[in-house]
Amino acid sequence: MSSGNIALLGAIAGFTIYLGLPLGRLRTPTPRLRAGLNAVAIGILIFLVWDVLTHAWEPIDEALGKHTWGTVASGGITLTAGLTIGLAGLVHYDGWIARRREAAARPAGPGAAVSAELAPRTRSQAGSLALMIATGIGLHNFAEGLAIGNSAAQGELSLALLLIIGFGLHNATEGFGIVAPLAAEGERPSWLTLLCLGLIGGGPTFLGTLVGQHLVNDTLSIAFLGLAAGSILYVVIELLAVARKMALKTLTTWCILLGLLLGFATDAVVTAAGA
Predict the structure, then answer these.
(1) Under 8 Å between Cβ of 173 and 41
(2) Other CB atoms within 10 Å distance of the CB of residue 95
(3) If pLDDT is split at 50, 70 and 90, which confidence band does 82 have?
(4) The total number of structural domains that make up the chain
(5) How many Å apart are CA 238 and CA 269, to the nearest integer?
């Protein structure tokens, strides 16, 4: 597969975020639709956590067999750092966002309700939160794009295509998360606002794919894959929390199973095709 085609698929993976963004303009999004899409993403991402970490561990495992301890040490440290940044970094970012939300919801004074004069400021704060969420999503989508491009550059098209499918479906669910603060405030974002938020949240997947194709070595690959694995694991934890709140256990279970089987099926088809 040419680098141009990989870049195109990376762009598609990133811009599937626009599938979820228009939900911000719906007054009553269908709960079962959101729950189903959320659960399918969980299933695919669970498969991806295993697949990505398997590929990240391969060069370390090979070095262990050859007793090249320097490579083992550098690879282990790199993988640990990538996982830590991808997982713990997003946890701290999420905590920062939560504190900003609490500050925005705090009354104007002791025992006082927010006055009507502060309503425009509240709406502005909701817009700022949406922007910050889109920025955070964009940062880890860039890491995901790096993993896609790096895998493709090393000839691991099976992993690259699985990453594109998994991240693409995941990005489709992220769109509503971005516009959720606006929806909570009763704001219906304009189409221009949705366009900008989508570029911030989904565009970095494409940029990361371009960069990742031109930076190839084992240490860099381990770093990218570790960062992506941490990000994926963080997202899985978040999506599981969302699924529990939706209280549609039967639908969620079947859709998670569907997503997991889809991950294995895609890997089998691509591998059988010789990728």
Answers:
(1) yes
(2) 10
(3) confident
(4) 1
(5) 29
Structural domain containing residue 238: 3-102+123-273
The tokens 């040419």 sit on which residue? 2
What is the 8-class DSSP label of residue 194? H
- pTM score, two decimals? 0.64
Contact 173, 239 (CB under 8 A): yes
- Residue 213 is predicted with a pLDDT of 79
Give a yes or no: residue 148 inside a domain: yes
Of 219, 231, 209, the closest CA to residue 164 belongs to: 209
Q: In whole angstroms, what is the distance from residue 242 CA to residue 26 CA?
A: 19
Cα separation, 209 vs 142, in Å, equals: 8
Q: How far apart are CA 176 and CA 24, in angstroms?
A: 6
Mean pLDDT of 29-40: 73
118 within some domain? no
Q: What is the pLDDT of residue 120?
A: 44
How far is the C-alpha of 151 from the C-alpha of 137, rounded, in Å?
21
Q: Is residue 115 part of a domain?
A: no
Confidence of residue 54 (pLDDT cuts 50, 70, 90): confident
Domain membership of residue 215 (yes or no) is yes
- The number of helix segments (H) and strand segments (E) in the chain equals 8, 0
Contacts of 134 (CB under 8 A, 6+ apart): 178, 197, 198, 200, 201
